[in-house]
Amino acid sequence: MTLHYSWILGLLILTLVVAIPMKVGAHLVSAQHTGIIRCGFAAFVGLLGGILASLIFGGIIGPSLAWILGFILSIRAMLGTTFLGAIGLMLVAWLVSLLGFWFLVRFGLFVASPVTPAVSI
């Protein structure tokens, strides 16, 4: 019985932290596609595009820059916006995602714990 509730809670957290911020950003930059499912899927495809770009171009321009460019270009292609619009969308989505994370921590749905240092023996 609790397994069903954990799936629902997981989907709620994923939607609040990923899909809604992308949707807000898509509306603010006037993207062609602004549906919540498409925005959530665009974040997933953007992640894969960033990884692929990092693997292909990471040795030339650096893995971090290649990942960011791959993510932005994937978002641009999925949601139908300009390159600068995709950058703005990414920044707005990041800020809204932080707000969603704060909301989850504030109301006890997500517990933020400090990172413990690793100890090798």
Q: Could you name the ranges where pLDDT drops below 50 across 5 or more consecutive residues?
A: none
User: Major beta sheet, specifics?
Assistant: none
Counted beta strands: 0
Radius of gyration: 17 Å
Structural class: mainly alpha
Average residue pLDDT:
83
Report the helical percentage: over 70%
Number of DSSP helical runs: 4
SSE pattern, N- to C-terminal: HHHH
Question: So what's the overall shape?
Answer: globular
Question: Can you characterise this structure?
Answer:
Helices cover 78% and strands 0% of the residues. It is globular and about 40 Å long. Helix 1 crosses helix 2 (36-61). The protein has helices at residues 2-28, 36-61, 63-79, 83-106. It is an all-alpha fold. It is built from four helices and no strands.
Give me some keywords for this one:
121 residues; mainly alpha; 0% strand; single chain; 4 helices
Spell out the blueprint of helices and strands.
Blueprint: H1 2-28, H2 36-61, H3 63-79, H4 83-106
Summarize the structure.
The chain has 121 residues and is mainly alpha-helical. Helices cover 78% and strands 0% of the residues. The chain contains 4 helices and no strands.
